[in-house]
Amino acid sequence: EAETVGAPISARSYEYSGEAVCDANAEIFLDAVRAVKDTTPDGFAAIKLSGLCDPKLLERMSTCLVELTRLYARLSKDADAAADTRTPYYCTDLSFRLDWDSYIAGTRRLFNVEDEAALRANFDRIDSD
C-alpha cells in the first residue's frame, strides 16, 4: 500500500452481528477472566473488546474519552499553556489536577458561564476526591 503512512493496519475487525452475539461474547469473556482468577489469582486475561459491541461504537467512545481528557487538561491550565490538540493522546501529560478554582477559571475562559450554581453541580458530580 503505497499511500500507507506509518504501520499498516494489522488488527482484524469483525462485522457487528447484533446484541445477542455481543452479550454471548461478554459472558465468554467473563468466564475466561474468572477462570484465570481461579487458576492463577495474579494471572492475566486478554480480551478483544471489538467482540463486545460494534467496533464503530468503541471508536466513538475512545474519541469521546480522548476529547474529554483534552478538554479537562485545557480547563486546568491558563490560556497560554492550554493543551495542544495536535499532540498525540499517548503523549498527553495526564498528571494535571482539575480543582474547582481551575475548573471555573478555565470554563469562563472557554465558554460563556451563565449559571455558576449549575456549573458547580456538574463539577461536584464528576469530582471524586
Structure in words:
There is one protein chain. With 129 residues, this protein is an all-alpha fold. Helices cover 50% and strands 0% of the residues. It starts with 18 loop residues before the first helix and ends with a helix.
Can you lay out the helices and strands and say which pair or pack?
Elements: H1 19-39, H2 55-76, H3 100-110, H4 116-126
Helix pairs in contact: 2-3
Beta-strand percent range: under 5%
How far from one another are the termini?
49 Å
* Percentage of residues assigned to helices: 40-55%
Question: Shape, please?
Answer: elongated
Q: Provide the gyration radius in Å.
A: 20 Å
* Low-pLDDT regions: none
Helix-strand makeup class: mainly alpha
Biggest sheet architecture: none
N-to-C series of helices and strands: HHHH
Number of distinct helices: 4
Residue-averaged pLDDT, rounded?
80
Annotation, overall tally of beta strands: 0
Any key phrases for this structure?
single chain; 129 residues; mainly alpha; 0% strand; elongated
Give a quick summary of the entry.
The protein has helices spanning 19-39, 55-76, 100-110, 116-126. The protein is mainly α and 129 residues long. The longest helix is centred in the middle third of the chain and has 22 residues, at 55-76.
